[in-house]
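To whoever is covering the structure queue this week,

Two jobs came back overnight. Logging them here so there's a record in the thread.

Job A:
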Amino acid sequence: MASFKKFMDDESLIQSVQDLFESDLGSGDEIKLAKPWSAKKADILNMWRGVKPNLPIFITPLKKDRPIGSKTYGEDGIRITGTYNFIMSVLSRVKDMMNRENPETRLKLVFRSISGEKYAIPDQQSYAFYINLERRSKRRSGRPKEFKLGGI
């Protein structure tokens, strides 16, 4: 397993992410894949401090060819778990994500209770909230084509 420090040294991750936001976001350029690694807390905090504040959220829609009902782990998205108050306070910081609900893309949203599940904290009402982005199809299946009146 490669180290996070080597990844940061080799990839200049902070700079590459910042360059991405300063360039054309629609270019489709991908960051090359790295070997799996796990960062230490001090390294994560150092990286986090170096990120410019208020970058727009750059989220790639889910792949169209993924099987229906498949997991979205590893795809761009946000998962927030905890109490209702915690989830709402985090959502208040990412309200610009709501702009992704538009004619080209739609938000895939899940909000559910996790209390009573085997990983839930006893005596605490907990929740899970997920956000992913999907591309809209040109026309929904089953929806009739637009009807146009001729000559009127």
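Job B:
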Amino acid sequence: MKRKTIFLTGVGSVLTKEAEDKLFKESENAIPRCDSGLSREQYQDLGIPEDKIPQSLKDKERALEFGEEELETEEVFSTVVLPIDQMKLWIQDDGEDTYTTIFLEGGITVTVLEDAMEIDSYIDFVNRSWFERVKDSVLFFFRQKFRNKKNDIILELE
């Protein structure tokens, strides 16, 4: 049996170019310091043995701290293909920007642009029976035929 999926518009955020530059500049110039403000090199210059140097200065990676300042981000949109059988729950955020968060099996969450009603209608559309699909195809065919004949009649009258 073919796996049923729906296509939605995923929403994410990435750092702006200015924020990336700032982060890169800070990471290159950052020297890890302990609570007293001393760096590892300063501890070594003072002749303090390695076992007395704080562990935070021994770690090679250090998280950059920007204080109260927040790095600017911008929204990006992409097509997301979600298998219907993996979708467990979707919750719509009714804030300024209306997004829906979909919870999938395995603890994965995806934020999408479509609202909860749209997602539900997409799932209903995909789960139509064979008879409903044939009926819709026939109705579509005849609507197109009659619409074209109606347009031909109007053109002849002009």
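Note for Job B: The beta strands are 5-15, 73-83, 87-93, 99-104, 109-112.

Please reply-all if you pick these up so we don't duplicate work.
Q.
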